[in-house]
């Protein structure tokens, strides 16, 4: 007889599934979550689902409102800008520490990784792999700071902005991105903290109009296929009706 999974394991599994749906916007932005329908789709009771939703709200993937339950974080330009500003502060801080702490061999290894990544094919079809390589570069660079809390924070932040960064990656900045990675590493190898941090700041920074354009492209993707969610193996349709694109916020 097969034993049912332990409650803690069930809650963890539900947490990861719902987080993937929120990260990829398979759960549409701004949508109030229908817990009954979502529990049915996932084949679980509402107890582990409620625990997962509570955790995801604490982690910034969902919003919780008294007497209204949970809703998916919106694709809002001001919020996305705030996340990019946080990313810039976090990564420049980690880079500054890496200039003090990283070994020459570690820097050389990351430089070799960045060089190999330049050979990855570009284009819309390869955007998922390009995003994975880009996230890996930035997380490996943060790891050179020797500060595990900074690395943990960056990994969590990358999940929160993964969808919009995927959209950005599809727009074809790959060549510029790779050149900047190598220039940052050259400054790091020379222990030139200030030039490295200035370049990192410019590398990450986005204007509000750029973010607005990425969000418009993101809405179009969400309502016409959502390849990011499909690649993650998520259900082809969200578990409850989605608003028409005309209902999105300007």
What does this structure look like?
By secondary structure, this protein is mainly alpha-helical. A two-stranded antiparallel ribbon has the order 1-2. Helix 1 crosses helix 3 and helix 8 packs across helix 11. The protein is elongated. The C terminus is likely disordered.
TL;DR?
The chain is mainly alpha-helical and 250 residues long.
Averaged pLDDT, please? 88
Q: Sheet bearing the most strands, described? A: 2 strands, antiparallel
Order of helices and strands: HHHEEHHHHHHHHH
Give the number of DSSP strands. Answer: 2
Q: Structural class, please?
A: mainly alpha
Instruction: Please estimate the helix content.
Output: 55-70%
In order across it, which strands form the biggest sheet?
Answer: 1-2
Oligomer: single chain
Which geometry do the CA atoms define?
Answer: elongated
The radius of gyration computed from the alpha-carbon positions, rounded to a whole number of angstroms, is: 20 Å
* Number of helices, counting only DSSP H or I runs of 4 residues or more: 12
Poorly predicted regions are 242-250
Please report which band the strand proportion falls in: under 5%, 5-15%, 15-25%, 25-35%, 35-45% or over 45%: under 5%
Distance between the termini: 54 Å
Q: Which short descriptors sum up this protein?
A:
12 helices
């Amino acid at each position: 007889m097969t034993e049912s999974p332990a409650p803690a394991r069930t809650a963890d599994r539900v947490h990861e599934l719902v987080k993937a749906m929120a990260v990829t916007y398979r759960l549409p932005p701004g949508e109030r979550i229908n817990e009954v329908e979502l529990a049915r789709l996932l084949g679980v009771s509402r107890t582990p689902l409620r625990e997962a939703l509570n955790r995801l709200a604490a982690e910034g993937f969902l919003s919780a409102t008294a007497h209204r339950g949970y809703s998916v974080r919106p694709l809002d330009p001001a919020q996305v800008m705030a996340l990019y500003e946080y990313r810039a502060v976090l990564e420049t801080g980690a880079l500054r520490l890496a200039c003090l702490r990283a070994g020459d061999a570690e820097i050389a290894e990351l430089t070799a990784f960045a060089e190999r990544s330049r050979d990855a094919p570009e284009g819309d079809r390869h955007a998922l792999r390009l995003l994975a390589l880009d996230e890996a570069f930035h997380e490996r660079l943060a790891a050179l700071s020797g500060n595990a809390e900074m690395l943990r924070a960056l990994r969590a932040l990358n999940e929160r902005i993964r969808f919009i960064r995927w959209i950005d990656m599809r727009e074809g900045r790959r060549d510029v991105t790779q050149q900047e990675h190598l220039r940052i590493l050259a400054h790091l190898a020379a222990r030139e903290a200030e030039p490295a941090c200035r370049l990192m700041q410019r590398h990450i920074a986005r204007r509000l109009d750029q973010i607005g354009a990425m969000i418009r492209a993101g809405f179009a993707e969400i309502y016409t296929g959502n390849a990011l969610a499909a690649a993650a193996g998520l259900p082809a349709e969200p578990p409850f009706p989605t608003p028409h694109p005309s209902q999105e916020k300007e």
